[in-house]
Amino acid sequence: MYYDHNQIENKWQQYWAKNETYKTDAKSTKPKYYVLDMFPYPSGAGLHVGHPLGYIASDIVSRYKRHQGFSVLHPIGYDSFGLPAEQYAIQTGQHPAITTEENINRYEKQLKRIGFSFDWSRQFRTSDASYYKFTQWIFIELFHSWYNNDTDKAEAIDTLIKHLSEKGTEGLNAVQTEKIEFTAAEWNTKSEKEQQEILLNYRLAFRAETTVNWCPGLGTVLANDEVINGKSERGGFPVYQKKMMQWSMRITAYSERLLQGLKTLDWPQPLKDAQEYWIGKSQGAEVNFGLENSDVQIKVFTTRPDTIFGSTFMVLAPESPLVQEIVTAEQKEEVQNYIEQTSLKSERDRMADVKTVSGAFTGAYTVNPFTGKKMPVYISDYVLMGYGTGAVMAVPAHDERDHRFAKKFGLEITEVVEGGEDVQEEPFIAKDGICINSDFLNGLKYEDAKAKIITEIVGRGLGNATTNYRQRDAIFSRQRYWGEPVPVYYKDDVPYTLPVSALPLELPEVEKYLPTEDGDPPLGNAKDYGWDEANQKIVATDLIDNKMIFPLELSTMPGWAGSSWYFLRYMDAHNDSYFADKEMTDYWGQVDLYIGGSEHATGHLLYSRFWNKFLKDRNYIEQEEPFQKLINQGMILGMSAFVFRIDGTNQFVSKNLAKDYATQKIHVDVSLLKGATDELDTEAFKNWRPEFKDATFILEDGDKYVTEREVEKMSKSKFNVVNPDDICDEYGADCLRLYEMFLGPLEQSKPWNTQGLSGVYGFLKRLWNLYFNANDEFEVTDEEPTKEEYRVLHTLIQKVLFDIENFSFNTSVSSFMIAVNELTKLKTNKRQILEPLAVIISPYAPHITEEIWSLLGNKESIEYAPFPVFNSQYLELDEIEYPVSFNGKMRFKASLSANLTPKEVEEAVLKLDKTIEILNGAIPKKIIVVPKKIVNFVI
After folding, report:
1. Following DSSP, what letter does each residue of 57-90 receive, concatenated?
2. Residue 87: is its pLDDT beyond 90?
3. What are the backbone dihedrals phi and psi of residue 208, each rounded to the nearest 5 degrees, phi first?
4. Contacts by 855-861, CB closer than 8 A, 24 or more apart
5. How far apart are CA 396 and CA 405, in angstroms?
6. DSSP assignment of 129-149
7. Helices 809-825 and 733-742 sit at what angle, rounded to 10 degrees?
8. Which residue of 116, 503, 539, 634 has the lowest C-beta tally within 10 Å?
9. Which stretches of 318-399 are assigned E, i.e. beta strand?
């Protein structure tokens, strides 16, 4: 019977949409299972075949869980704020919302074409005002919260104000930007402005001067993961380090909880390691070093206070405020030049570059408090202001970077831990040595020396023991248009949040999307962007007088804001008055399965965990962590094609002749190849781009231009993108789904090969034909299946149950093929076999199985049919076919009862005519029987 995949797939996609087959009930008594894909950003390029990989896996699990009786939440939406749409708006003048809508429509059409079982009724976009209303609400909650170290959680700012008004900072154990002290009387006599400025020191969303990655080309601040080698990931514009007033999120308050929470999560270990490294917990001591002939104290953080006797110089971060305070007139120009040079590098680049040694002498000296020796003070880009105190007591004998710096600048290297070779040439960084040249620490090992020196540091009033984290507070403002407006206005230069009743603060219309002539962000171009405090409404910008009408914040939120809580909104997507009803968040709880890329390890996944913990602290949700199990899917790699252009010409030589010429290797669009071959369609190539219009070719075999093929990341820029629409047209969505799973383990990267689709398509045709007789008539009988048919079915059930529970989707597809081949040989047409077979395969290939299910006479969708139950009795064989070997060489096979003991097997085989003939009277030295496996005679 002809398998018309297009007709079948169109039919069932329309059915699912019309009947809302995958819509999840608001309330259910069933056990729940929440499956989520990482938030897609709708780019203009649409989907290529690499994008659906994770979606197919999550869809299989979702469908399987529905078969098992779970209430499954499997939603979809769009992370629709982002730089690409804004850059396009700057270039063309088209509003980002229009571009975004067009992109989403294309994405959605492609996703539906592949047959995903998303609950489309819960769909939203982060750029919808109805959604970002609650992103703004969460910001307001963060602004009005502080972190109480005593209770180890966030609390309402009112409790802090009460403490300050009654006790001042006495007994206050709070996470704060800088340690400040005052009495209750002092607090109560301060002005409103002074009090609000003090509170910014504690708020979880706060405004402060921060060193940022400033990108003039994009007109905005970028996160560290948006900067590569000193340039913006988007557009490749130069990025500079610059101090600016910025909104930040005090994620550092949660550093320890973020670390400890990793222990409770079923995540890939490399991803956990990445977050652990990013958070960067280290324990040591803070020590104050006095500046020579000055009252200035330089505070350093060190994890190796046991080596303080070997500290011979000090290094400050170039951006440290202390630099301008201590630099001498003679060194000022050199220092300033170095600071400007460093500003061209991001923190990430500075951390990664361990080989380049550079710095500048400030002209100042500090004094080692334990040796009394003068220590020159330098600046260098290997010290970061964001880590510790921005100052390092350099111990070159026992630290690699300090050692390279000392060798470069000819500084003293003093050995204080015994165990290395010549520390003048190589530092000894191990902790298993004995202290030497260290006065009262001499002879002590690391742990004892560390404890003793910290006691001494505290006793002498030089500092204290402390725990430090590498993680810095997250910058939360961007100087761009296409993002969530920050719900803040300014009165006397002090930030105040809008009342919740005024939300959403909607993104205003602007005439242009570039910064203003005064350098303000694009929102400075808005005509209606003032806040009428008395009447609590937005009014014309021209009315701002800073008395009754106040300016609004002109920055917008970063790209990660909306994606930090979207998993909660899906639980109650249409609630107009609350981000999600607590009854709903209590029911759905954590995401049970989250699938996405590992590139989000220190961005989205960290911020989501932070916001989730905050919302729990404030009693809005119950779960501490958002995503219980996470799988990082691998990439589907593209098979790129290359042509060879002879240098200085527009002539192209075929691959196997190219070695005879000096050539340039150029990417060519894979769509220009003939069918599934490596042969280039030369006419299509000439029409592809104007510069190739007059191309000529040196062909091989007389008439062929053969391209070179290479496996690379699938990318538009490499012209190796395969459009899933084309695959669905030719082979069908079910074939695409099965093939992507068949390629290999989900977590691994694997190359795409369109030629491989034909084998999977052949399997689907064989599956289809199982249900039809020789006359192309649908024929399924109610006869009792044979034992062999039951064995095939239950072997498959056992395998698929194991595979889906263990996310081994590729081996399930292999098992489908084996089972269908065996049932075809058995000419199976029994309902008790073929009906459960359709259910088993349906999570992978939903369209063809829906059609089969309907032909079987079922009126409802296959989606909620119970998954077949495995019965091990059907795998018990009546007979075992034993290979019989003589001296390791198999000579024949013997069918024996499966119930025989090894001794009975031996006796039965000895009586066989073939055994008697081969032995020819010889007595075996040994007979080896492996039960249910093999018999071997040693003669």
Report:
1. HHHHHHHHHHHTT-EEE-B--B----HHHHHHHH
2. no
3. -160, 165
4. 855/771, 855/778, 856/771, 856/780, 856/831, 861/15, 861/16, 861/19, 861/21
5. 8
6. HHHHHHHHHHHHHHHTEEEET
7. 120
8. 539
9. 360-367, 374-379, 391-394
Alpha carbons 523 and 251: distance in angstroms, whole number: 27
Determine phi and psi for 223, rounding to 5 degrees.
Answer: -75, 160
Q: Which two tokens stand for residue 830?
A: 């029994």
Cβ-Cβ contacts under 8 Å for 29 (sequence gap 6 or more): none
| Residue percentage of the chain with pLDDT more than 70 | 100
Beta strand 32-37 with 71-73 is parallel
Per-residue confidence band for 216, with pLDDT thresholds at 50, 70 and 90: confident
Instruction: Classify residue 548 by burial, with Cβ atoms within 10 Å: 0-12, 13-18, 19+.
Output: middle
CA angle 30, 32, 37 (to 5 degrees): 145
Q: How many CB atoms lie within 10 A of CB 503?
A: 20
Does 504 sit behind a cis peptide bond, omega within 30 degrees of 0 on the bond before it? yes
Work out the burial of residue 118: count CB atoms within 10 Å of its CB; fewer than 13 is exposed, 13-18 middle, 19 or more buried: buried
Sign of CA dihedral 558, 559, 564, 570: positive
Closest CA to 449 of 310, 290, 288: 310
- pLDDT of amino acid 496: 98
Phi, psi angle pair for 751, to nearest 5°: -80, 145
Mean model confidence pLDDT for the chain = 95
Neighbours of 724 (CB within 10 A): 21
In the numeric block, which tokens belong to residue 872? 């091990």
Task: Report how far apart, in Å, the C-alpha atoms of 383 and of each of 229, 343, 363, 370 are.
Answer: 18, 13, 18, 23
The alpha carbon of 835 is separated from its chain's Cα centroid by a whole number of angstroms, namely 39
Contact 336, 343 (CB under 8 A): no
756 within 8 A of 33, measured Cβ to Cβ: no
Cα–chain center distance at 716: 21
> Which tokens is 603 given?
């961005």
Torsions phi, psi for 304 (to 5 deg): -125, 60
Give the mean pLDDT of 470-484: 92
Model confidence over 817-864: pLDDT tens digits? 999 999 999 999 999 999 999 999 999 999 999 999 999 999 999 999
Q: How far apart are CA 668 and CA 644, in angstroms?
A: 10
pTM (whole model) above 0.85: yes
Query: Of 803, 856, 864, 801, which is closest to residue 833 (Cα–Cα)?
Result: 856
